Amino acid sequence: xxxxxxxxxxxGLVTGVCLAxxxxxxxxxxxxxxxxxxxxxxxxxxxxxxLETLLEQNLGCGRLQFTTDPHCAYKKADIVFxxxxxxxxxxxxxxxxxxxxxxxxxxxxxxxDIIVCTKSTVPVGTxxxxxxxxxxxxxxxxxxxxxxxxxxxxxxSAILDFFHGDRIVIGTDRPEAAAVLEQIxxxxxxxxxxxxxxxAEMIKYASNAFLATKISFINExxxxxxxxxxxxxxxxxxxxxxxxxxxxxxxxxxxxxGSCFPKDTKALVQIAGNVQHPFELLKSxxxxxxxxxxxxxxxxxxxxxxxxxxxxxxxxxxxxxxxDDVREAASLTIVKELLEEGAIVTAFxxxxxxxxxxxxxxxxxxxxxxxxxxVDAEAAIITTEWEQIKHAPLxxxxxxxxxxxxxxxxxxxSLKEVEKYPITYISVGRPAVxxxxxxxxxx
Length: 443
Ligand code: UDX
Description:
Keywords: NAD, Oxidoreductase. NAD(+) binds at residues 30, 35, 86, 121, 155, 263, 327. InterPro entries: 6-PGluconate_DH-like_C_sf, NAD(P)-bd_dom_sf, UDP-Glc/GDP-Man, UDP-Glc/GDP-Man_DH_C, UDP-Glc/GDP-Man_DH_C_sf, UDP-Glc/GDP-Man_DH_dimer, UDP-Glc/GDP-Man_DH_N, UDPglc_DH_bac. Residues 313-415 form the UDP-glucose/GDP-mannose dehydrogenase C-terminal domain. The chain is of the alpha/beta class. It folds into three domains: 2-195, NAD(P)-binding Rossmann-like Domain (Rossmann fold), CATH 3.40.50.720; 203-290, N-(1-d-carboxylethyl)-l-norvaline Dehydrogenase, domain 2 (Orthogonal Bundle); 294-426, Rossmann fold (3-Layer(aba) Sandwich), CATH 3.40.50.720. The chain has helices spanning 10-21, 33-40, 51-60, 70-74, 97-109, 126-137, 158-163, 175-185, 197-228, 232-240, 261-274, 280-304, 330-340, 353-360, 370-374, 387-390, 395-400, 415-418; strands at residues 2-6, 25-29, 64-67, 79-82, 114-118, 144-148, 168-171, 192-195, 311-315, 344-348, 365-367, 379-382, 405-408, 424-426. The strands form three sheets. It has a six-stranded parallel beta sheet, with helices on both faces. Strands 11-10-9-12-13-14 form a six-stranded parallel beta sheet. A two-stranded parallel sheet has the order 7-8. α9 (197-228) packs parallel to α12 (280-304). 46% of the residues are buried. Residues 151-155, 208, 211, 215, 249-251, 253, 255-258, 260-261, 319-320 line the site of uridine-5'-diphosphate-xylopyranose. Uridine-5'-diphosphate-xylopyranose (UDX) binds at residues 151-155, 208, 211, 215, 249-251, 253, 255-258, 260-261, 319-320.
């Protein structure tokens, strides 16, 4: 099969590289020349565990190529995966401009009958629009089928998710088109769900909305736990044991970020609103998430009073571990709030500093050394549960900080461990730990 991937963002690149690894001939096209040059040289523009190795291997054996030339990308294509971005508009709706441009370009350059497969997350009905655009432009003698095939790749474990996903959703009313896609994915042995186009589009939004709901739900329970003196770790474990609920996505913290949940939840509220169904539950999920992100600064002020002129270290810039992505990362909002309060911020992150710098510039200091970030700080706010943070010896807070105050937005440490040190420790949904002795003295 000759496969073309339109859009070499996160989803397009992982999909293209993994499909080449399955043995297909894959051409990836993007308009960004710099990115394509980098990929042609075997370097990945994003950090994703295992991606660069697969990229190099498949470039090396000639199964994978990158181009900015639509003629080269589409002339031999049997299948085109659309994986361009659908960024959020100011009103929360998905911006479909890149999708429309991709559809037009495909229609202009194809020379075979093809299947167009939409990976991008698009509102219900968009695949019908893609079909209309292509039909209105393509040569009349060519057949084009449009299929919805949403992605469920998590950043940081996207390669694993591609090869060992829970399901593959194929949305089409044409069994022949579904059969071709089934054939492509056959080696993966992942369960395939075949639906109509609109249901496939909805499965993607509903999945992300449900996962976001689980997160906001556990964060609400965490807030109540704090007030009644319960411990969210024990509560989450207890409810997760019920197989109908499950343990996943019950990690309380400062909420969800990233390129999908914030955007997709808002888009689904809009999609529902457009059909006169106010999605109140999902609106609350979003509100709870916004509240969670502000918790660390609220807590810092409760402990330190004014933050003006005080040094605060921020541990973690990426929206989650094992990625350099800072899109909708809690860290960005927290930095903004800290700076508004007059704090002086030093941020630690092992790999996301360049991306964070593009947004935050020189407004804060950056370091890849966790100890360096803590020097003379009056509070440390944990925003990402990096292994480097989880496995940092707790002594470093006592040794390097002015006063060891940890506001842990990701519940990285066990309360029993923290209790052994002279640390003030505030986490999410768990009792606060206050030191039994102070840094320079016993009680
Ligand atoms: C998500 C979906 O999981 C994936 O299927 C989809 O296709 C793309 O969006 P991703 O954004 O990469 O993937 O990360 P994910 O692991 O889902 O986490 C999203 C956010 O939720 C992160 O900010 C994470 O910290 C937060 N989260 C996750 C919690 O706060 N608690 C949890 O229990 C789980």
